[in-house]
Every structure is written in C-alpha cells, then in structure tokens.
Design a protein that fits this description.
Layout: E1 4-9, H1 17-33, E2 38-43, H2 45-49, H3 56-73, E3 81-84, H4 89-98, H5 104-109, H6 111-119, H7 128-131, H8 133-143, E4 148-150, H9 156-173, E5 181-183, H10 188-191, H11 216-224, H12 245-253, H13 256-262, H14 269-278, H15 283-309, H16 312-340, H17 349-367
Parallel strand pairs: 1-2, 2-3, 4-5
Bound molecules: tryptophan.
Tryptophan binds near residues 6, 8, 9, 141 and 149.
C-alpha cells in the first residue's frame, strides 16, 4: 500500500516554534527521507472559518503567512503538495456523507471539541459547522487515503474519530477508505512546548510565542525574559528543571553539536541540568545558550522566508498547483466513495440496462395478466 502523508494547520496566525517542534520539523524530515509516495500539506482555511466566521479577512491574510512558514521551514513543492482546503470542494461532499456515520453524542465526547467549546464560550450556542469539524477533518484525511498524519497531541481525538468513521464506512459500504495512523512528536517537550511565560501552551492571544519569522533581536529579547525557576534567586541556589521553560526548550531544540559549538564545558544537556540542580549555574548563562541554539535553528528559516517574501506570486503559484494536485487525488477518492454508496448513477453502465429490464418485464407481465416478479429492481 502507498505511504501517504496528510496534515495541515489553520491559518489564524504565523506559525511559531511550538508548531515547528510539534509537527513542522517532522514533516520536513519525513519529506526528505523519500520514504513517502505522496505528501499533502493543507492550509485549513475552511476549518479556521468554523470559529472565525466573522473574521474572513484574518483567515485570508494568514494563508500566505502559513505558506511562507512552510516553504521557509523546508517543505519542498516538488515533493510535497501544499494546498488550500477550501479549494477542494470534494472535501465538503465527503463531509456531508460522513455526517450520517457519526452521532451527536459521539461529537460531544470529543475532548478537543469539548475544550474548544469552553475556550470560545460556545457552551450555550455552538455553531453547527464548528461542532462538526472533526467530521470534516476525517474527510481531509481520508480524501487523500493518508496512512500517516503527523500532528501534535491535541489532534489525537480527531484521528481517533477519523478511524471510527473509516471503520464504519468500510463496514457499511465495503472496503473503500484507509485507516490512518497518527505520528506524534518524538519527545515530551516537543509534544507540548510551553509559552515563553511558562504557560502550558504557546498562543497568540497570550503573547507568549516565538514565531518562526521573528527577527534575531526579537528572539533574543524573548529568550532573555523567559520564565525559569522562580525559586532560583541566586546563582549559588539549587535550581529546578521541572517546569523550567528554558530547559524544556533545550529538551526540544538542543543537540550535542550545540554543546560542542556554544558550551564546550558541558558534554550534553544532562550535565548542564545536573549543574543547575546542584546550584552555581545562573539563568543568564543557560538563556544565552538557548538563544544560540534557537538562532542556529531559526536563521536558515528566516533567510529562506525573506527570499520567498520577495515573490508572493510564486507562493500563490505553489498553492494553486498544489491545490490542483490535491483536487485530483480527492476526486478519485470521492468517485470511489460514490460508487461504494451506490450514488454513482451516471457512471454505472449496468444501471440503465438492469432497470430497463425490470420495467420491460413488469410491462410484459401486466399484459399477460401475471403478477410482477418479486424482488423488483436490483
Ligand atoms: N485541526 C488542525 C489544527 O488545528 C488542522 C487540520 C485540519 C488538520 N484538517 C487536518 C491536521 C487534517 C491534520 C489532518 O491545527
């Protein structure tokens, strides 16, 4: 079976380093292994509209920002189709059919939907489109027959819901859809990168993000004012690693090469952590190291972004071509789905012949005064 990746992001802002370690870095690695037959990376504008229906301008403006972040991070249009969700009408049609396979109660149990409803104060009045977005996400994934979906942990309930829809569909209509596997980030820190203020999540509204597109001075300023261990007042004090954002970021970003390059007096992160725990290691030194690590990671991304920013027409051309490729694939799946659901009337050459035979037979029997044959049309 072909190995196929589908994943994506909502265009509600520029991508930050939480997106990067949570999924984007992995996508680029997977792309570069050459192990996958097809890779689709989607900008989920239709999904973004399910809770931004009054903000179409925000969604529209962020398409190009996300596309720039994708290209800057190293997604290569020659190997990965970058596309815009709303340009693939097949996805909407699939969603409509899948709605019959999911109950309201099941959607209400989806933990991600549950917490988003709370976050957005939708408790008393949930837009239907928002409520059903897990179904549309199942359409996104299955339309491409994706086998692998690299996403953050928060998307786990969506993939589980997709797998249920696939099983139900295949059971009712016959084997058609492919059950996808989730691919989570490789370590805990990358799974849940906290904000620079130590809050559980990086989010634009909290103002605690480091963006892939931040310039070097901004990154440095954000790093130097990051949350650490509030109990670590003097350099000589023993410090805590747990919940210490600077060390969480180092878990997600640093490697042994970084130590050789910027902090050769330590072998690796374990040694640095041990010194911090013992006492005698100041926050500023650790932050400066983290800044070096982040700058090394972000500098090439920033440079590539600046290049692509000079040619926005090219960026849209990438998206247009990617959307064309994506639509072809989705159309193929949709016609299999229509066939399985027996709504492929005009493509079924047997349909007219067999129904004509039925009516002919009925007319003949009526003329002869016989009862119509039981069973009727096929
Ligand atoms: N829900 C994802 C997010 O909020 C975006 C998304 C939409 C997606 N459809 C998808 C991710 C399909 C993976 C697969 O970031």
């Amino acid at each position: 079976m072909a190995k196929i990746i589908l994943t994506g992001d909502r265009p509600t802002g520029r991508l930050h380093i939480g997106h990067y370690v949570g999924s984007l870095r992995r996508r680029v690695q997977l792309q570069n292994t050459g192990d996958f037959d097809e890779i689709y990376i989607m900008i989920a504008d239709a999904q973004a509209l399910t809770d931004n229906m009054e903000n179409p301008g925000k969604v529209r403006d962020n398409i190009v920002e996300v596309a720039l972040d994708y290209l800057a991070a190293g997604l290569d249009p020659a190997r990965s189709s970058l596309f815009i969700q709303s340009q693939i009408p097949e996805l909407t049609e699939l969603s409509f059919y899948y709605m019959n396979l999911v109950t309201v109660a099941r959607l209400q149990r989806n933990p991600t939907v549950k917490s988003e409803i709370q976050m957005r104060n939708f408790e008393n009045s949930i837009p239907v489109g928002f409520f059903t977005y897990p179904i549309s996400q199942a359409a996104d994934i299955t339309a491409f027959k994706a086998t692998t979906v690299p996403v953050g942990e928060d998307q786990e309930p969506m993939i589980e819901q997709t797998r249920e829809i696939v099983r139900k569909f295949n059971f009712v209509y016959g084997d058609t859809l492919v059950e996808p596997e989730i691919l989570l980030p490789e370590n805990e820190a990358s799974m849940r990168l906290p904000g620079t203020d130590g809050q559980a999540k990086m989010s634009k509204s909290l103002g605690n993000c480091i963006y892939l597109s931040d310039d070097a001075a901004t990154v440095k300023k954000k790093v130097m004012s990051m949350f650490t261990d509030p109990g670590h007042l003097q350099i000589s004090d023993p410090g805590k690693i747990e919940g210490n954002t600077v060390f969480t970021y180092l878990d997600a970003f640093s490697n042994k090469g970084h130590f050789e390059e910027y902090l050769p007096e330590y072998q690796d992160l374990e040694e640095l952590k041990a010194h911090y725990r013992r006492g005698g290691l100041g926050d500023v030194k650790v932050k400066k190291f983290l800044n070096n690590v982040l700058q090394e990671t972000l500098e090439p991304i920033r440079k590539r972004r600046a290049e692509y920013e000079k040619d926005i027409a090219y960026v849209y051309e990438v998206l247009r071509k990617g959307s064309e490729t994506a639509e072809n694939k989705a159309a193929g799946t949709l016609s299999e789905v229509r066939h399985a659901m027996r709504i492929d009337y005009f493509d079924d050459e047997e349909l007219i012949r067999s129904q004509q035979a039925y009516f002919n037979d009925r007319a003949a029997r009526e003329q002869e005064g016989r009862r119509p044959r039981r069973g009727g049309k096929r």
